[in-house]
Amino acid sequence: MNDAPSKALLPAGLSDLLPPQAQHEAETVEALLASCRAHGYERVKPPLVEFEEGLAGGEATFDVGRSFRMMDPVSQRMMGVRADMTMQIARIATTRLAKAPRPVRLCYAGEVLRVQGTQLSPERQFCQVGAELIGAAQAAAGDAEVVLLAAEALNAIGITELSIDLTLPTLVPAVADGLGIADPVAGRLRAALDRKDAAAVAAIEDETKARGLFRALLAAAGPADRALAAIAKLKLPKPAAEEAKRLAEVVELIVAARPDLRLTVDPVENRGFEYHTGVTFTIFAQGVRGELGGGGRYLALGGAEGGEPATGFTLFTNVLLRALATPEAARRVFVPLEVARAEAARLRAEGWITVAGLMPAKDAAAEARRLGCGHVYRDGQVKTVG
Prior knowledge:
Elements: H1 21-38, E1 42-43, E2 49-51, H2 52-55, E3 69-71, E4 78-81, H3 86-94, E5 104-113, E6 125-134, H4 139-156, E7 162-167, H5 171-178, H6 185-194, H7 198-207, H8 213-219, E8 222-223, H9 224-232, H10 238-257, E9 262-266, E10 276-285, E11 293-300, E12 308-316, H11 317-323, E13 332-335, H12 341-349, E14 353-356, H13 364-370, E15 375-378, E16 381-384
Parallel strand pairs: 1-5, 7-9, 13-14, 13-15
Antiparallel strand pairs: 2-4, 3-4, 5-6, 6-12, 7-10, 8-9, 10-11, 11-12, 15-16
């Protein structure tokens, strides 16, 4: 018995992308980037592996839990394989493009690798496509531009019926600070809100001066107009009220441009947005399992003192391909060996994919079927094979 593992066996979460899906993904990526380029976003290409501090966006900590690590034999420094591309783009903007006029608009596409997948998305390697707006002076206008660009890019590849869930992870900390709620109580409150545990939130409020404020924020989640109206009725500490005002401004700009978009607001959601500094969002589509992508406002650390305000989005092609219809079969025509090369070139100019015969074929139609071609070039014409 041969106990050697099969060469086709791959680690969990990794897979080969075969025809025609590989071509479909490539065309989808290019269509998404075309939408970004049409709005002035220029493409950049960071490396797959770099020093840990670069992948951490200049922060002191590195996301060890999600990232593969290795020792660089040249520099003897620790490197990481990127698990996300956002901070790489921020690094480029704040270092290599530090003198470029602001705001800097950049777009990108590339593979990422993670230590673990998720229950809804078990893939550990997949392609990200995204855009980053860095250094914009007007926060609300920049946030709205990025949300609208993400929606337009998805519409361009045929994904409609979008739902965009807007969150504000800075709101709860601003309310807690305004009410003088510090750790460890603030930490327990954050955890209870993340679990949407109203009973636990009520118990913590009894220890503070909140008087039902956090439960009211928890209950406000829902369609954007209703959620913002509920938040506007609350007596929030001044810094928190300013945060809520910015969220309302972003929603107003999005609705003015795209009243057809379905917007929801969850004012207490924080999970997955820990490093964000303002409005964040997650994109879903009707009938599609899992999130298509997301993004939000953050601080691009690097060349500028204290960092630069930035906002961006990332889309996940592994989920997008599940949302898209199977591509139409390519127009492939089998060209027998005896056909002149000039004739094959003419067919390609007309949009055909030509598959050349490498030896004489007794039955050209049978050879076409064997090679996956729906047509054969015979007697000066392209003919359908049965």
